[in-house]
What does this fold into?
Amino acid sequence: MEPNMLTYIIGGIALLVGVVAGKFLFAKNTKKQLEDASAQAQSLIKEAEMRAETIRKEKELDAKEKFVQLKSNHDKEVMERNRKIVESENRIRQKEQSITSKESGLEKQIKENEAIKENLNRQIDVVNLKRTELEKHQEEHIRRLEKIAGLTAEEAKSQLIESLKNEAHSQALGIQQEIIDDAKQKANKEARKIIIQTIQRTAAEQAIENSITVFNLESDEIKGQIIGREGRNIRAIEAATGVDLIVDDTPEAIILSSFDPLRREIARLSLQRLVTDGRIHPARIEEVVEKTRRQIEEQVMEIGERTVIELGIHGLHKELVRMVGRMRFRSSYGQNLLMHSRETANLCATMAAELGLNPKLAKRAGLLHDIGKVPDEESELSHALLGAKLAEKYGENPAVVNAIGAHHDEMEMQYVISPIIQACDAISGARPGARREIMQQYLQRIKDLENLAMAYTGVEKAYAIQAGRELRVIVEADKVTDADSDKLSFEIAQKIQNEMTFPGQIKVTVIREKRAVNVAR
It folds into this structure.
């Protein structure tokens, strides 16, 4: 065997012996460790058993204490319940005793009532007997009175009833007048307060619009150019604008006459442009008038938009905005329609705010209440009904539509703001300086007022004074009594209110005077 092989064998044997020796030593150490672990485990088990016993004893003590406490609480509750039961039994006994005493009292009262009833029955029998006797005496008395007076009972009764009826009617008229005066005094006081506050917070202007416009010229030579050869230029201007041009001896002025302020404005601006340009002939006139008309339409839209913006009104249809702008060139009794509508809108908003209503809705209705006066096409409807129709067509609120249509009582008022619009329209139109009233119309109204009073029996004279604000009626003292005077005053005031249209209010005063005249000779 080779030396190297032997060396390998010896090394392997040595290695094997080392492994066996190592396993022996490891087994020996492991046994010792197991014995130590077993001893330690026994010690831990004993210790755990001791702790468990301690805990068990503590829990038993706690359970005993809780039991004792619960038992004590239960005993207290039982005692409290027993006490309440005893108190309830005592109260029940007291109630039973009270009921027993009341029953005895009721029985006594019933017996007394029975006795009283028997006594009353006896008294009723006596009264019936006496009533029968009294009726017989009364019939006998009536027969004697009829024989003495020469009247039957029915005739006397009817005369008495008629007398009482007349007296009651007079008293009722007096009371009615007192109630009306008192209600008017209070209502007028509050209404006057609201109206005065509203008017004071609204600016106003005087009536300035006319049916003519004066166009000033630099010299009278321009008149000839405006008239043209054989008057063709002036005829072309009148045909294109619909306005009458009056050329007279007035120095350096031409009068433009038309009831439509919009047409007068178009004619004025067109003349101004023609005179400035210097070229005045029919073709040029038509061109300038058409251009001016378009410019005025744009201006109308701009005026309407500016108005609604200044008043804070939103969501208005563009056609209604255009109609608002057209109001600027329309007047009523000398009062500019746009200014009147703006003034009415501000009055309505102020009054609605004072009354706790919607001021924006009232202002909207106040601005639109006269749009029926500026329609694009002529209509047979009144301006109030036409305005309501237009407002409804362009989607306005039903309250606004009703207020427009009812502000002259041509529709039934269905919303609270409707009478406000009517009142503010009257305030704006009836204030001093707002409108010019034609003299013939004023005199006719005064005459109608006097004739209305003269139509009553017993009226001797009637005078409308204070520009028609007061009606004084003089009656014949022989035909009209003092009581009839009160009735006459009330009836005349009611008839004026129902049949006549007037601004503000009219005071009716009935004067009855008895004069006794004798001559000493």
Remarks:
- The CA atoms of residues 103 and 109 lie 10 Å apart.
